[in-house]
Amino acid sequence: MRPLELTLEGFTSFRNQTKINFEKLEVFAITGPTGAGKSSLLDAMTLALYGKVARKTQPKELLSQGSLKLQVSFRFLVNETEFLVFRSWLYRTRTSQLTFKLEKRINGEFQPFGEQKEAEINAVIEKVLGMNFETFTKVILLPQGQFDEFLKGKSTERRQILSNLVGYEKIFPDMCTQAGKQANFLEGECNVIQEQLKNLDFSLDLELNSQRRDRSEFLSQELLRLHEAVTKAQTGLAAEKELLQHLKALADWQEQLEELNKQAINISKLKQQLEQARVGDRLSAIWTSVNLARNQYDKTHADVEIAAKALIEKQSAFKIQEDKFNQAQAYHTEIAPQLKQREEALTTAKIYEQQRRQINNEVKRVEEVLADKVKLLTEADKAVKKAEAELMQKNQILTRVNNEMSLYSSGGERLEQLNQVTPLLIKWEGVQKQVESDRTKLQQITQELITTESDYLSAILNFQKSEAECEQSRVELDTARQNNYAAALRALLHTNDDCPVCGGVCPEAHLLPQLESSDNIETLEKRDRAAEQIRQKAADTKTKVETIRDNLKKQEIECRQILAKKEADLKAETQQIIVILKTDKWKVKVLEQERQALHESDAKYQQCLRNKEKTVTEVQVSEQNLKSATSNLSDKQTQHQDAAHEVERQKTQLQEISDKLSKLTGSESYDHLFQKLERDKQELEHRIQHQTHNYQTARDEFRQAQQSDVKARKDFDLASTEKQHLETEWQTSLLSVNFTEKIFQQSKVDPELQNQWQQKIEDYKTNKIELQTNVQRETDAIGDRTTKAEIIAQYEKIVADAGEKYKQAQDEYNDLKLVIAKAEEQQEQVEKLQAQLSSKQQELGIYKILSKELRSDRFQDYILQHFERELVEQATVFLLELTEQRYALKYEKKDYKVEDNWSGGESRRVQTLSGGETFATSLSLALALSEKLSRGAKLGSLFIDEGFGTLDAETLQSVSNILLSLGKQERLVGVITHVPALGEELGTQIKVEKFLEGSRIVVTGISA
């Protein structure tokens, strides 16, 4: 799961809507003062995903003070699929109004995903993430600070911390409770089964004797004999009944055959009608052709009459259009010369008209040019006046700048010298402060080391003393136990028995040595345990003091090395300053004051110099502008005079052309005369085209009418010949079957009715054959036999008597079988209950042992030890990755050590690691725990609680490098820290700032 965007409003300290976009973040720090709301960001994620937070707080308790609405929205990515979950609580009444939704991005748009109910949404999110709420809060937020305590703590403390991190502090009590409940439940089931066994009746076992079994076997044989008698009687009865049925069936078939023979006359008439209809069907094809020929003859005869009438009409219309066409041709011959004469006159006038228009357009153009020249002349005059005013203004500014420049001077070589030495002075002051700080730190470490050496000697003496006391207590306890064992052995042995210890013969009791009393064995055991605890405590104290002493020695060496290096750096910086200043007597504050004064004076001087250069350039530009404007004004005056002369010349030429055109066209304009001529030409052309079109249309219609008349006559002749031929053939066909056309018309019957007639005839034949067959079959079956009702009644009485005897025997046999089966079933039930009781008692013993073991620490120690080894193996993989294959974590004799592969595999205790090395080791353990608890779920993001209060420069750099390398593993890494320098070192920060109106988020260091 990789976060993309978190939005929260009315949530704890975030009163106003706050939005965080994680898409461009890789490794970042979450910083801010205590109580600003750093951890609230993770709480908002879990509230959006699961509807609850790790602190088991109700949503109303998370509501910002004074707010009525709490809402969180979280957009995240799982397996390249984007999801959006939203939850909102509105508190306007005593009950809250809850709103929630879960959406999935499909084809670029968010769409509802699953049922929009709270329980369904929680289930879907657990399935999508592959983690429930408890697992999510443990694998996403890594408590690195707790693992730092875990590494450096005692064995018992480590177990307690690991149990809390994994959640065993809840699991083991729950397991113990469940085991106890299951044991009680199984004990109750055992009691129930025992009670069932007591209540079972064993008296039926006595009835399973040989007499009942012999009776049962006899009845079995008797039932076979009785069954044969019943079967024989039933067979005779069935034969008589079957004969009676045959006699009844024969009478029925004979009656149906007589009724069918009565229909023979109607069937014969139906056959004749069907034969006549079939002859008519054979003539139908010829009749269809004859009928079509008759219709075609009538149609073609009518078409001939219509075509002849149309030919006369089209011939008359063609004659009328031909006369009109000739008249139009004569009119065109008369008018065409007149139009041509008018057209020639207008051609001459067109030339003058074009010249007039050209000159008129030129006059307008020249007048526009003259107006532009007047405008440009006015603008040029204004430009000259403006340039004169601007030049005067620039000369005044130049005078003022010269006066101001005389008040300041340049910084010169001294300012350059001070600027060069200033960074060195700043660095010198920083190194000086570090040297003083390191000297103070070295004094503190030396003093602490002296104190620790004294504590270490005391711890060694105390440990030696407690070890001696423990050894003495153990010897006394062993002696007492041996005496007890000897006394117990004596009690079991008798005189002359072989001794299992020495192999000799046991003598009489008065000859055995006297044993000391061992009644105080329990007191010795308590004293031994107390001594062992004191020894263990002394050993832990010795180890702790030894670790502190080793760390202090290491710190002392490191501090002296750092101090020597910084003192050398301070000396080198001092020498550089002396070389630049050329004196060994100087003070930082005095030099800084002198540099600031020179810098201010030089800055003002340089500003005045730049202003003067700028003003001189502007004066030169203004003079050039004035010269250019004066020259431009003179040019514009000349161009204005030329344009005025050109306007007068064009107007004179226009008047001359207009007079010539007026003499040629009279009072009418050229355009009007031209349009009139074109209109007359178009009317003439339209008239000729119209008459030509009408003439051609009438001619084409006349020709088409001629063709239609010829075709109609030809079709009529063909139809007449065809009709005569088919009429002859039709009469011949009728005579061949002794039909007339009237009889043929009457014989036509619908095919469906013919099929019905045919079906009736066939049904008649089929039924007759079937009835005759049935009569013959029944006659053959009966033969010469006969029967009656009295004979059947006698057979029925014989069957009833035999059946009654068989039923009585069967009932007795069934009763015996039931009693035998019941006894066997009860015996089987007893065996089954005894097996169940044995299984339940065995399972009960297991749960009692499990419950007892869970109440002790042995089972928990075994599980934690196994889990701790797996955790170390996985942490070693991460530690090698984070330290470039240098360090490997080892767990030996309940203690943690680190192997340094760069030093030939040298092992050292984790208490001797530096701050950066400790961070890498504890972070590896946190990552390993996250990996195991996630159970294979892909973790696209991690949030680390680094747990530092402060960090020195070297540790800060190590921690930063480790976190940056962790961010290269394709996951989002966020670090919750109280150390501002760590956030600055990582570069990207989510700063949580506190204000009266609520906390705010500021994201810094994101690259574009």
Report on this structure.
With 1008 residues, this protein is α/β, with parallel strands linked by helices. Helix content is 73%, strand content 9%. The protein is built from 19 helices and 15 strands. The chain has helices at 38-50, 118-129, 133-139, 144-152, 155-166, 168-199, 210-261, 264-405, 412-492, 521-581, 588-665, 670-736, 741-747, 751-782, 789-855, 858-882, 915-934, 953-967, 980-986, and strands spanning 2-9, 18-21, 27-31, 69-78, 81-90, 97-106, 109-112, 141-142, 887-892, 895-900, 906-909, 941-945, 972-976, 989-993, 1000-1004. The chain has a six-stranded antiparallel sheet with strand order 2-1-4-5-6-7, covered by helices on one side. A six-stranded mixed sheet has the order 8-12-13-3-14-15, sandwiched between helices. Strands 9-10-11 form a three-stranded antiparallel sheet. The longest helix is centred in the first third of the chain and has 142 residues, at 264-405. The mean pLDDT is 79.
Short description:
The chain is of the alpha/beta class and 1008 residues long.
